[in-house]
Amino acid sequence: MPKAPETPKNPPLLNEAMLNRESWKIFQIMAEFVEGFERLSTISPAVSIFGSARTPEDHPHYQLTVEIAHKLSDAGFSVISGGGPGIMEAANRGAQQGKSLSIGLNIELPKEQTPNPYQDIKLHFRHFFSRKVMFVKYASAYVVCPGGFGTLDELAEMLTLRQTGKTRAIPVVLVDSGYWKPLLHWFRNSLMAEGMIKADELDIFALADTADEVVDAIFAHYELRSLEPSAEEQEILLQL
What is the pTM of this model? Predict the structure, then answer.
């Protein structure tokens, strides 16, 4: 069996130019957070909508997302999306058809991430982690439409923050129950069965198949609580 190369006890230092680049990245990251905080801190309430960048305009998921975002916008929610094509475009498009702001958190990627033209506020990020904070920090609800690895990554991030109490207890609405039920089945029959998650942690989700069901699920969550974060919740969000 081949042996892995041994790590030297005194590894060579990064060359000076690379070390300088690494150090200066800190300021680039800080700038992304500062701009995001300044541009979004006065926007409330808002809903973050996630979904595939690959969904074409004539797909039912695209059309449903436009309707969802339009209804949320008319109900007083600004809509935050990833700013790109597909479901992200549909979310921004529907938001612009309504009364509230359409916000895009764009990221530089080698492919697929072309900013859509339906954004009232357009932010640009190089780093996924700073962009994720902005999705979470100012949202009163998460609406997760069908998507791939990126959507699953964002969903897992939200679930982890909810599970660990590192963010507000806000609704997570999964759109198209048929799409998500196999995943929820795996959660119950594998994760929960093996003790990896608790039964009550599955109560975080709501399933919806229509735009009205999405809006109703969000308002039902806030029927007995404020859309605005409490003082305790604001402290939690400061530690996000």
Answer: 0.88
